[in-house]
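Lecture 7 notes: from sequence to structure.

We start with a single chain of 252 residues. Read the sequence below before looking at the structure.
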Amino acid sequence: MNTSSQNPIIGNPFIQLAKVDSTNNYAMAQIHNGLAEHGTTWFTMLQTEGKGQRGKQWNAEEGLNLMQTTVLNASAFPLSNPFHLTVIVANACYEFFSKYAGDETSIKWANDLYWRDRKAGGILIENIIRGNKWLWAVVGVGININQTEFEGLPNPVSLKQITGKDYDTVELGKELCTYMEKHYQRYLKIGFLPALELYNQHLYQRGNNVHLKKDNVLFSCQIKEVEENGDLIVTESSWDRFSFGEVEWIMQ
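Now the structure, written as tokens:
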């Protein structure tokens, strides 16, 4: 369903916060209080309890990174396959970051932004569902921009480390919203399969042999693609597919 005529553009309004526990938490509260609409984005200079995937924390120095959450009307996406939205956001983040960092940028399944073998950012999507209706998606994005020292993280990288330049994080946050709007509108017009094809074009280690771990078993395989339901498809292994969270990457 094309809902673009009913909705404002992503990033309008774009609200700056000095400090918040988590932009996703803040956005959730605004939705519950009736103070959010499609496209509203909250950007913060500091998160005290930033959230990553599967309960992990996202730690970032004050004022040095892109940390924001956008609220989306989720009615355009199928509740039966929330991976549609992950693909849209990942494609937007890829296009945004690769503009500055170049073609060594990739999307690491399922929702991390990578440069070479290092993590530049991540996506955390939380949802409000009532009955069989997906009402709202709360799309959190964290991208390392000007930070150059990272404590306790295995393989981080920032845009400044890649390019040697400093950036205006607020302006970059607004720019990311334009890419999200572009890929959202593209999805409304031509559907999911072209978006998935784009996602797979930029898939981290596609066609390469990697090491993964499943149930404490280490094994190697070759990354083939990600399917419509979000499963990772591999070859040259006893297993041929994995759902998100089923395997752990072993970085060499």
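Residues 209-249 form one domain. Keep this in mind for problem set 3.
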